[in-house]
Amino acid sequence: MERMKLPILQYEDQIVETVEKNPVVVIIGETGSGKSTQLSQILHRHGYTTSGVIAVTQPRRVAAVSVSRRVAQELGVQLGEEVGYAIRFEDRTSEKTRIKYLTDGVLLRESLSNPDLSQYSVIILDEAHERSLNTDILLGLMKRLIRLRATNLKVLITSATLDGEKVSRFFSQCPVLHVPGKLFPVEILYSPERAKNYVESALKTALDIHVKQPEGDVLIFMTGQDDIEKLVLKLEEKIQHLEQGSVMDAIILPLHGSLPPEMQIRVFGPPPPNCRRFIVATNIAETSLTVDGVVYVIDSGYVKQRQYNPSTGMYSLDVVQISKVQANQRAGRAGRTRPGKCHRLYPSIVYNDDFLDATIPEIQRSSLAGCVLYLKSLDISDIDILEFDYLDPPSAESLEDALRQLYLIEAIDEGGVITSLGRSMADLPLEPSLSRTLLEAKDLGCLPQALTVVAMLSAETSLLPARSSKNTDKKRKTPPSNLPDGSGYGDHIQLLQIYEHWDETFYSTEWVKEHNLQVRGMLFVKEVRKQLSQIMQKIATGPLDVQQGRRRKEIQTEYRNLRKALCVGNANQLAERMMRHNGYKTLGLKSQLVQVHPSSVLQPDEDGMLPNYVVFHELISTSRPYMRNVCSVEMRWVAPILQKIEKLDVSKLSGTSRPSKERTQEGDFSSQKEDKPITQAPEDPNSRIQAARERFLARRGNR
DNA sequence: GCCCGTTAA
Question: What is the CATH classification number for the domain harbouring A8?
Answer without folding.
Answer: 3.40.50.300
